[in-house]
Amino acid sequence: SQQGEEDPQALSIQEGENATMNCSYKTSINNLQWYRQNSGRGLVHLILIRSNEREKHSGRLRVTLDTSKKSSSLLITASRAADTASYFCATDEGGSYIPTFGRGTSLIVHP
Amino acid sequence: GAVVSQHPSWVICKSGTSVKIECRSLDFQATTMFWYRQFPKQSLMLMATSNEGSKATYEQGVEKDKFLINHASLTLSTLTVTSAHPEDSSFYICSAKLTAGAVTQYFGPGTRLLVL
């Protein structure tokens, strides 16, 4: 069953702008991960945030996690055309450590 | 970082034939591999978990006789789509973990299957 739901489904911005994507989930989680997928390709792991963490940074990426609201956000600052891709959040719960993926946000960055 | 490859990257086959897709961990040994299926603009749906040396664990609704999984070594898992039909056309992605309890998965580049 699907756990995470990304919002918005699609996002179109100009190069240089910031892009914010949100992920909501239903049950308590161990970890939440964000992945990127270029069209027709596999997934690239971007960042992992554990349930006891609230914020993590990696380069131009900033991820927040609010376990009380069961939501996470991915912020890409100073976006580039090369950031155009689909972004998925994935959560794992219990002892499985098998992530469940949301439908993704399709980001288009116009040069 | 850990690299996972898939072969072939794309395949076209006739209805009724079987297609085998390979997933290899190139620079690490993977005790656990996963097979996903993805429809256009959709999420990744887990099909099965493949453990080296044992039978795969299939998700509910996935026919194990239709999608045969073999994880014969610590670096190779194969997915065979038997008697393929047009509705099996999809993007198949594998991933691998170093250990079953590891959080991080490493994904292959995917295989696009088109059944005519």
Number of distinct beta strands of chain B: 11
Structural shape of chain B: globular
What average pLDDT do the residues of chain A reach? 91
Strand content of chain B: over 45%
Taken from the alpha-carbon principal axes, the silhouette of chain A is: globular
Descriptive account of the structure:
- The complex is a heterodimer of chains A (111) and B (116).
- Chain A has strands at residues 5-7, 10-14, 19-24, 31-37, 43-50, 55-58, 61-66, 71-76, 85-92, 100-101, 105-110.
- Chain A is globular and about 45 Å long.
- With 111 residues, chain A is mainly beta.
- In chain A, strand 6 and strand 7 form a beta hairpin.
- Chain A contains no helices and eleven strands.
- By secondary structure, chain B is mainly beta.
- Chain B has no helices and eleven strands.
- Chain B has strands at residues 4-7, 10-13, 19-25, 32-38, 44-51, 57-58, 67-73, 76-81, 90-97, 106-107, 111-115.
- In chain B, the strands form two sheets. In chain B, strands 2, 4, 5, 6, 9, 10 and 11 form a seven-stranded mixed sheet that branches.
- Chain B is globular and about 35 Å long.
Could you write a compact summary of the structure shown?
The complex is a heterodimer of chains A (111) and B (116). Chain A is mainly β.
Q: Could you name the key traits of this structure?
A:
A: 111 residues; mainly beta; globular; B: 116 residues; seven-stranded mixed sheet
List the SSEs and their pairings:
The complex is a heterodimer of chains A (111) and B (116).
Chain A: E1 5-7, E2 10-14, E3 19-24, E4 31-37, E5 43-50, E6 55-58, E7 61-66, E8 71-76, E9 85-92, E10 100-101, E11 105-110
Parallel strand pairs in A: 2-11
Antiparallel strand pairs in A: 1-3, 3-8, 4-5, 4-9, 6-7, 7-8, 9-10, 9-11
Chain B: E1 4-7, E2 10-13, E3 19-25, E4 32-38, E5 44-51, E6 57-58, E7 67-73, E8 76-81, E9 90-97, E10 106-107, E11 111-115
Parallel strand pairs in B: 2-11
Antiparallel strand pairs in B: 1-3, 3-8, 4-5, 4-9, 5-6, 7-8, 9-10, 9-11
